[in-house]
């Protein structure tokens, strides 16, 4: 399904009652509404970034709900789609923190391929209805992913942006891992401390200290 070590780690989740119910809900949703991302892109975060390769976890809330935006990676959009406002602020912070020029696209696949798990807490959404698939079972699934990452010996950095992401801090009990928190990059809250948080340089400093190759954040 994912083509990497997540297959074995998450195999048992798909048999559980909550996931069977979630699948039924999604079948009905797709029959009656437009759902993003497309069915074959829902698990892209896990396909691009194997468990053993994760260096950084960036937690989002749910996928973008506009036409043609979501493709299974938190905060990322498909090539040719304008960067949404939250991503624009992420780029602003990248520029001020590391001097990286603002890219002319919003596609973050190159981060995912370097070990940045771009994980939303809900992996699907109904068109034009933010949070419409909240509390349908996805959170149980993604909490399991976070818990599995917490169990790993090799250290990683969790970037928790916004209140919803910060609530997941309790799942990261392993002292080997680093948690960095900031307000959400949305225009509504970015000025409260996301801009100026310097999470990108701090992340790379942690990775270097652990003997890991830092992330090349340039897109």
Account of the 3D structure:
By secondary structure, the chain is α/β, with parallel strands linked by helices. Helix content is 34%, strand content 11%. It has 8 helices and 6 strands, in the order ααβαβααββαβαβα. It has helices at 6-10, 17-32, 44-48, 85-98, 109-113, 138-151, 163-166, 199-209, and strands at residues 35-36, 56-60, 116-120, 125-126, 157-161, 178-182. It has a 4-stranded parallel β-sheet with strand order 3-2-5-6. It has a two-stranded antiparallel sheet with strand order 1-4. Helix 7 (163-166) links the parallel strand 5 and strand 6 (178-182). The protein is globular. The model has no long low-confidence stretch (mean pLDDT 97).
Q: Which sequence of SSEs, written as H and E, runs from N to C?
A: HHEHEHHEEHEHEH
Largest sheet: 4 strands, parallel
Content-based structural category = alpha/beta
Shape: globular
Distance between the termini: 28 Å
Mean pLDDT: 97
Q: Give start-end ranges of low-pLDDT stretches.
A: none
User: Strand sequence of the main sheet, in spatial order?
Assistant: 3-2-5-6
Strand composition percent: 5-15%
Helix amount: 25-40%
What is Rg?
17 Å
Count helical runs. 8
Tally of strands: 6
């Amino acid at each position: 399904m994912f083509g990497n070590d997540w297959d074995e780690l998450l195999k048992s989740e798909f048999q559980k009652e909550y996931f069977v119910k979630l699948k039924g809900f999604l079948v009905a949703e797709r029959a009656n509404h437009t759902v993003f991302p497309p069915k074959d892109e829902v698990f892209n975060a896990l396909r691009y970034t194997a468990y053993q390769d994760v260096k950084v976890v960036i937690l989002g809330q749910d996928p973008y709900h506009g036409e043609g935006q979501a493709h299974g990676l938190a905060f990322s959009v498909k090539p040719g789609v304008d960067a949404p406002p939250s991503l624009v602020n992420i780029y602003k912070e990248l520029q001020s923190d590391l001097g990286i020029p603002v890219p002319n696209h919003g596609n973050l696949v190159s981060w995912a391929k370097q070990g940045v798990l771009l994980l939303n807490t809900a992996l699907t959404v109904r068109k034009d209805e933010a949070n419409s698939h909240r509390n349908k079972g996805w959170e149980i699934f993604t909490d399991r992913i976070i818990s599995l990452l917490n169990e790993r010996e090799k250290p990683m950095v969790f970037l928790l942006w916004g209140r919803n992401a910060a609530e997941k801090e309790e799942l990261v009990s392993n002292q080997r891992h680093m948690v960095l928190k900031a307000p959400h990059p949305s225009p509504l809250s970015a000025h409260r401390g996301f801009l100026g948080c310097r999470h990108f340089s701090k992340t790379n400093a942690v990775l270097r200290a652990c003997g890991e190759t830092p992330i090349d954040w340039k897109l």
